[in-house]
Amino acid sequence: MLEEWNFTFRLDKTMFKDFKKFISRGNVIELAVGLIMATYFGAIVKSLVNDIIMPPVGLLIDDVDFNDMKYVLKEAVPETFTGAGDAIPEVAVTYGAFISTIVTFLIVSLAVFAAARAYNKMSESIRKKGDVAPASPPAPTQEEILLTEIRDILKQNKV
User: What is the pTM of this model?
Assistant: First the structure.
């Protein structure tokens, strides 16, 4: 029993070291930061759509609130008496919320497309700069010329 525990402890200790090595890599940290930023970016865009864009659009479409747009399949049934707990909620297709979600998706996809396009242009410009022929090496200095001559004379004398 004690031997099994020691094996498990060593396994956990090794696993912890592996996890520490994995999590300390730069790419994992960058991925986590990107995921957190994307989550909050999505929340900001959702608020932008629901609170800023959709109300004026609803106003233009005959004072419609998209959150109220739904097709009721079954009406709600109220409680028979207070505290009975036998109420049945309505069953509805909330297509207004779906329209808001589509608008949110379009805004997020446009933002991601713009970021990807900017990244690709930046990568292309960097690649083009790298494609430029390297500058010719500078002419040797007077000191290098003298050292080369000395080397050549020494080679001739050894032969």
Answer: 0.53
Exposure string of 140-153, with b = 16+ CB inside 10 Å and e = fewer, is eeeeeeeeeeeeee
Q: Which domain holds residue 31?
A: 2-127
Q: Tell me, what CATH number does 85's domain have?
A: 1.10.1200.120
| Partner residues linked to 72 by β-bridges | 92
Phi-psi region of 108 (alpha: psi -120 to 50; beta: other; left: phi over 0): alpha
| Residue type at position 130 | G
Residues 6+ apart with CB under 8 A from 55: 65
Spatial separation of the C-alpha atoms in residues 33 and 43, rounded to whole Å: 16
What is the token pair recorded at 109?
Answer: 């996809």
DSSP state, residue 82: T
Q: Give yes or no for residue 93 having a pLDDT over 90.
A: yes
Return the pLDDT at 73.
92
Structural domain includes residue 40:
yes
Q: Determine contact, residues 102/53, Cβ cutoff 8 Å.
A: no
* Domains in the chain, number: 1
Whether residue 155 lies inside any domain: the answer is: no
Judged against a pLDDT cut of 70, whether residue 118 lies above it is answered with yes
Q: Tokens standing for 133?
A: 């022929």
